[in-house]
Each structure stands twice: as C-alpha cells, then as structure tokens.
From TrEMBL:
CDD domains: HSDL2_SDR_c. It comes from the Eukaryota. Its main location: mitochondrion. Residues 309-399 form the SCP2 domain. GO terms for cellular component: mitochondrion; peroxisome. Belongs to the short-chain dehydrogenases/reductases (SDR) family. It is found in: Mitochondrion; Peroxisome. Keywords: Mitochondrion, NADP, Oxidoreductase, Peroxisome. It comes from Parnassius apollo. One of its GO terms (molecular function) is oxidoreductase activity. This is Hydroxysteroid dehydrogenase-like protein 2.
Amino acid sequence: MSLVANTGKLAGRTLFITGASRGIGKAIALKAAKDGANVVIAAKTAEPHPKLPGTIYTAAEEIEALGGKALPCIVDVRDEKQVQNAIDEAVKKFNGIDILVNNASAISLTGTAQTDMKRYDLMHNINTRGTFLASKLCLPLLKNSDHAHILNLSPPLNMNPYWFSIHVAYTMAKYGMSMCVLGMSEEFKSFNIGVNALWPKTAIATAAIEMLTGDTSTSRKPEIVSDAAYIMLSQDPKKYTGNFAIDEDVLKEHGIKDLTPYACDPSNIDNLLPDFFLDVPAKFKEQVKKNESKGEIPELFATISKVITPELVKKTQAIYQFNVKGKEEGVWHIDLKNGDGTCGQGEPKNPPDATLTMDSTNFAEMFAGKLKPTTAFMMGKLKINGDLQKAMKLEKMMKSLKTKI
C-alpha cells in the first residue's frame, strides 16, 4: 500500500541498497523500481532462509517485474572486498551509483551483562562500520552523480539516558550510523551529496519485529518507510542534507494526513507501538496513565494459577520473576517451564529466564491486556533482564489470560 505517487524522478538512477532482500530495504527498492530505477541488491541471503522470506534473487525478480533493473550481489557489509566487488559490478552494469541506502542492521536488545562480545561486534561491524565502509567506497561514484544521496536507516541522536540504559550496545551501534549522517552531511556538502537519516515513528512489520514480539498487529507496513524514503531521495541533494527525518513527519509535510492505510491492523491505529529512540508523546503517556489501575496483585496471581495449563507450559517454556515496585512492592513468579506450571509470591525455585521490573500500578493493566509488555518496555514502564524473546512470549500468554482476568 503506497500513498505516494511515483513521479519518475528516480528513473535511470542507480541505487545501492544494503540489506535489500527483504523488509524495509526491499520496500525502498520496489518503490524506486516503479520509476524505472536501477537497483543493486547488496545482501547476504542468496539461499532461502528457513524462517525468513526472500533472497537477493527473488527481490531482483520483483524489481524487474515493476519496470526496474536489478543487480543481485552477495554482500556481507562487514567484508570490504565484497562491498567493493558489488560496487565494481554496479559500475560495469549501470555506469555508476547515484544513491546509497544504508539499511543493513543487526539488533540485540540486551543489557550490558547479557551482551556477549560476539553479538556486540556483529552489531557494531554491520551497523556502524558497515555504514561507514559502504559510504566511503561509494563516495568516488557519488561525487560523479548530479543527484547524489546517502540515506541511513537510523534514528535521531536522542541523548535521553533511558535509550542507552536498556541496551547500550545496540544504541551505540545505531547511533554510530546516525553520527555518520551528522559528520558526512557536513563533510560532503562541497560535493553536492545529500546525507540524511530516516527512522520510523512506530514499529514496522518486519522479520525482526515479528521475531521480537510474535505479533505485527500494532505495527505499520514497510511501505510507510519506503514512501518517505522516496520523497527524501527525490529532493535536490544540494539543498536537502543533514536531516534526521521521521517517516510520519515526511509524509505529513508531503500532504498525506491520513496514515491509516499503512497500519497492519487499522483497528489499532490509536494503539501503535512506538519505535525505539523516540520519546513518547505526553498524550500517549496520559492515555496509559488513565488506564492505570490500583491492582490487587495477590488476587491477580490467584486468577492466573487457575488458568495455567500444561499446554501453556509446553508452548511457553519459560520462567518469569516479577520485581514489583510501588504500593504493592514484592517479588512474584510464574513458572511455565516445569511440570504443569506454578505461580505465586517469592522467587521461583529455578533460575528465571527473564526478570521483569515494573510499578504495581501498571502490573495488573499488563495482565489484563490493556498495556502490552512490548509497549510498556518501549515506554520505559517495564525493565527486562535476561532473555528478551522469552519475556515477550508473555504477550502471547496474556492473550489467553485476559478474557479470564
């Protein structure tokens, strides 16, 4: 679903897009293809992945079906030779590169103690180093273009300590991409190269979000980002540079007021999951505040104990510890890994897979389905230590509980 009409401004232009075999990268490629653009699909997936859809070759077929020209290249952005080889192939086939989209990214939403250095290196080598490397190697070709852009899929540099505290390694890696925008937009001005960042206002229905939450009903479709990217990449690079843009703002400035068609589930238009690094608007905080209830935690756990089933244990396979703060301060647990499952006050008998800390005023709301764990986490209402993916399984579990609580 695209609400932005193609103007032909990217016709004949060559885009080098990292991570373009699926998700946002592919959506940007397909939007440009409708103009008749050339697209270099620089991504790792050459063979079908057992869990993730799309390869560089299937993406190439989709691009050409829409009227674009495609060059699929196997590229790991951590490997300088692979990046350079793909650039050389682009020159052979398309005689140059006009636009670089640094989309490839790695994510691990873990605290300092839980982030192993292999994962740390992966994020920094793909996000920050990969973006710097691709920009550096494409620079000689971009200098020769009369419509040169670099677009990084990275957030505004928000120095709110909260965004560092919950996953400092990932925040550093993403902000590294944004610092490339900050520096290169000024450095490359004399070459008439526009360097900008684009970030979604809400969660986007990509493989990463589905893996994290198991649910995309409070997300928007990748097309909202590709439409915003298309508008940005159609601008005059001499005048449009150094911007940290948000997809929703770009579209509204373009005259698109109703963004409902981008929602995966239009009934959730007022309950979309805010993306990382964007401070939550005051009105959203007020809405959550109104929904807060006093909560009777002992009664809540008594109810939960009645609805725990062996099937739920089999599906979840996780132990949770809840460190409740505020009026009803205390420690509680739910064991959905052992036997037929148990819950109650105190620490679990076995080490928890995830420890969740939140105020008692939000606790009952979360279990009643009025405040999603993912939303609470993104807003700073919920802090998680341990296995984040298992923690987010709570959302599925709560769906089965909320009708009974």
